[in-house]
Protein: Cytochrome D ubiquinol oxidase subunit I
Organism: Acetobacter aceti
Amino acid sequence: MVDDTDLFSSLDPQGADWDRLRATGHRLLDMMFDNLQNLREQPVWQPLPDDMRAGFRNAPVPDQGMDADAFGEVFRETVLPYSVGNRHPGFMGWVHGGGTPVGMLAELLAAGLNANLGGRDHAPVEVERMVIRWAATLMGFPETASGLFVTGSSIANFIAVIVASRAAENGLSLRENGMRDRSLVGYAARSAHGCVSRAFDLAGLGSDALRLVPLDDSFRMDTTALKEMIAADRQAGLEPFLVVGTAGTVDVGAIDPLEAIAGIAAEEGVWFHVDGAFGAMAALSPRFKEALSGLEKADSLAFDFHKWAQVPYDAGCVIVRDSTKHAAAFAQTLSYLSREDRGLAAGAPWFCDLGPDLSRGFRALKVWATLSVYGTQRLGQMVDNCCAVARHLADRVAAEPTLDLMAPVTLDIVCFRLRDPALTDEQLDHLNGEVVKDVQESGLAAPSTTRINGRLVIRAAIVNHRTMVADVDRMVDAVLCFAAKRRSGLPA
Ligand SMILES: *Cc1c(COP(=O)(O)O)cnc(C)c1O
């Protein structure tokens, strides 16, 4: 017989240690508030010093514990100053949301609750269902649509590809039999995010089964080409099952002609999926409703709350119009997961029936908090503001004699390039790429690069609610200054 007094006494503090840990918690919370309040005084990004990098790489597994306060100090010194920089108003690289202090608090609450949202009957799953219903409503889907939170749009797109392939004619047999001799093919514009092709790869369809449709002059899917490609594939005995339209392409922020694609998908009897990773959030602004028209006709939609909606990472979302088809693609009946009419194991269907994860955290809480505290109107104004800042940047670029605007600005992404008649295209690629690194290392701003029609361009995505006109002007000034230094052979 053992007695509890002989045993280890749980990982919780004992007695007065609760007060010490509570004080540590308050200090850490204040540290993060101070840090967020003073973002502008910090560099956008700075590289991790070599000794700290070596510290991480050589640190042994800790066998003895340390004080939580001391651990907070390690975080403050080695992590806090050397993060990605996406919270900073000068961050314009890739497509990263800025996060909010409210989202931070919600993460704390979610971690304190430590809920598992794979299933069962409790308030957190109702919160996720509510937020999914809100998301469906915002995007013009019926309230009966199903959906779930996942890490990001990469997995949301993957889930949609799985659902679409299972929903294809005779699809159910795919789950037991695999592809056998079926040859399902799908379509997306050349500008589609790389995760769509990877979704085809992961789904076992093969990345070649995703046909890349050419673009029109405005960097949108050429729907005449789409129709021809579908016809040619049918002729060759293949089975077209899916068309993916993008709302907000990752390189230039274009919106594929969603109405036209919806029409073609309906005529052809194929699934219509939209990758709206960041662009779907433009639906928060009445100004962009028109531009997104057709999105509400999709069979499924992938998008992120962690990009333009400013929810802290990670918070991706997939919505499927037909809840039956969604569940049919993932549900399993395993006895240890059996559903009851009452008690904790009631409340089917569970979220584990709608995606590959069984254990799942409470991502929905930070989305609920963000939507509740800011409201969709204010978030819509934020979206408008980002686009206005992007238009200002485009005007500034157009007015600079040494810069070229490289693509029309539909939403919040501006692509531009340093010009110099004395340099070849290749030399200009090199110059633009080096100047972007100079600017990033200066800590003044963080644009990134992409390629348009084969040429390397500087790309600024205004996805952070903190980025204002003065911030993009500072970025352009930095680009011009480093370019001038490089041209005159001075060290950057
Ligand atoms: C960011 C992005 C993705 C990938 O989303 P993650 O949340 O990073 O997984 C997919 N498509 C588009 C258009 C994107 O901008």
User: Anything to note?
Assistant: The chain has 14 helices and eleven strands. The radius of gyration is 25 Å. The CA atoms of residues 284 and 380 lie 4 Å apart.
